Structure formats: structure tokens, C-alpha cells
Amino acid sequence: MKKMILFFCAAMVSLATEAQIKTPQPSPMAKVTQVVGLTDVTLEYSRPAMRGRTVFGDLVPFDQLWRTGANKNSIITFSEDVKISGKALKAGSYAIFTKPGETVWEVNFYTDTENWGTPRNWDATKVAAVVKANAAKTTDMAESFTISVDHVSETGAHLVISWADTKVAIPFEVPTDSAVTANIDKVMGGPDAGDYYAAAVYYLKADKDINKAKEWMDKAMAMTEKPAFWQMRQQSLIYAKAGDKKAAIETAKKSLAAAEVAGNGDYVKMNKDSLKEWGAM
């Protein structure tokens, strides 16, 4: 019996040792990130090889749903909203599933990215976009399956799927112009309420020019439709430090009332403590 237990333990140790041995994968993983305009595009996929096999029409049947690679489904991630073949696609990650045809492919962008192969139950509600793309024959044979981002410009690029003698290019557009224009308008239009508020609080905490801090805080509050209790709290502290006790008390009372409505005990106590210090309670 003791010998059997020892043999069993030895076998388990042997299996554990074997499990720690790393070997090359037949379809190794690839991860590629490409910046297009101001948008990050990331690809994560496995790369099977031809190995003398006939790929499309045999290994990968025509007109059947394909994982578009090997192992776990291939995933594409966009950091911004894009348009792919003219169809809107929100920022996020998508599994790429295709139906290869002899001349035209159907390309599906699927919101569920946690599939090993194709989904067991295809859910049409998870298809964020589906586009058609022409399949071109090429003499430049691709031994390993490849997904890339090519023809990169400031406003878009092509998502390119290549394997064997077939290449499929799917154009997409990125919102570079709208992003840059919005940034230009913001910068050229001057600081916003958040900029003035941040600068004022920094000057208060860093013990810098308190009158400048007061000027900035007044601008921030004037630009804010409904100041929050925590914003009014900082405003009251700036008024107090600037020597305007009347304004400090008035603002602290507003902050106190708003903090009580919000149920924020910390700010209720801080405002009460300040009002006592300033002789208002």
C-alpha cells in the first residue's frame, strides 16, 4: 500500500513538472497597436499557418461563420467611435467573425469577445456592425494568417485580413477632425469653469496670490450653472483668506445647506467648524 501511495505521489509530481514546460504554440498570439489620427486601434489574435494546406474553400469553408483566426476569437479595440465601411461603431472591443466567400466576405463586429471559436449560440443583438468586403487574390502568399492596419492616414485606415492567396480590406474612418476642432475651440476660447476652479484651489493651497485665486474662483462659479457644496466650500475658504469674512460666511452657509441636502456629514461638519471660527454660529 505504501509503495502504491509513493508511486501515485511520484506520478503527480511528474505531471506537475510536465505542465510547467512551455512549448511553441502552433497558432501563436499576436498583439498590434496602431494609432490612426488620434484613435488607438488594437488587434489581438492567433496566427495559424498554411503548412501546405488549401485554406479557403477547404480548411476554411466558404459561406460559413469563421472565428477569423485560431483559438480564441480575434479582437479589435477602438479607443474612439469610428465608422467602418460607412457604418457607425462605438468605441470599445469587438470580436471579428467573418463568412468568407469566393469574391465577397461578410465581416461581423460582435460585442461578446469571450468566445473560444465561434459562439455556440449566435446572438444577432450582439452584432454591432456587419459589412461586406471584396476578397482579392494576390500572388504575394501569406503563409501565416495576418490581420493588420494599413493605408494609415490622419482620417482613417484599412483593416486588412490576409492569408494564403487572399486579401480582404475593410476601410474605416476615425473622428480626427472633430476631435482636433473641438480641442482648438476649447483652447482658443480660453479657460473653462474647471480650469478657473482648479487654478484658484491650487493658489489657495499653495499660499500664492489669494486675490488672484478669488478672481479665478468668482469666474469659475459664474460659469457654473449650479455650484456643488464642495465647490462653495473652497470658495468660502478663499474669501476668508482674502479678508472678505462676510462673503465667506454667506458662501459657507450655502455650502452647509447643500451638504445637508446631499447627506455629506464631512462637509456639514467642516462648514459648521468654519462658521464657528468666523463668529457666525
Contiguous uncertain segments of 5+ residues: 1-9, 11-17
Structural class: alpha+beta
Overall mean pLDDT score?
Answer: 92
Number of H/I helices: 7
The major beta sheet can be summarized as:
9 strands, antiparallel
DSSP strand count: 9
Shape: elongated
Largest sheet: spatial strand order: 1-2-3-6-7-8-9-4-5
Write the H/E string, N to C: HEEEEEEEEEHHHHHH
Radius of gyration (CA) equals 31 Å
Core attributes:
281 residues, alpha+beta, 9-stranded antiparallel sheet, disordered N terminus
Give a written overview of the molecule:
The structure is a single chain. The chain has seven helices and nine strands. The chain has a nine-stranded antiparallel sheet with strand order 1-2-3-6-7-8-9-4-5, with no helix packed on it. The termini are far apart. Helix content is 36%, strand content 30%. It is an alpha+beta fold. The chain is elongated, with a radius of gyration of 31 Å. The N terminus is likely disordered. Strand 1 and strand 2 form a beta hairpin.
What's the topology here?
Layout: H1 2-19, E1 29-36, E2 39-46, E3 75-78, E4 82-84, E5 87-89, E6 92-99, E7 104-110, E8 127-150, E9 156-173, H2 176-188, H3 193-205, H4 210-222, H5 229-241, H6 245-262, H7 265-277
Antiparallel strand pairs: 1-2, 2-3, 3-6, 4-5, 4-9, 6-7, 7-8, 8-9
Summarize the structure.
With 281 residues, the protein is α+β, with helices and mostly antiparallel strands.
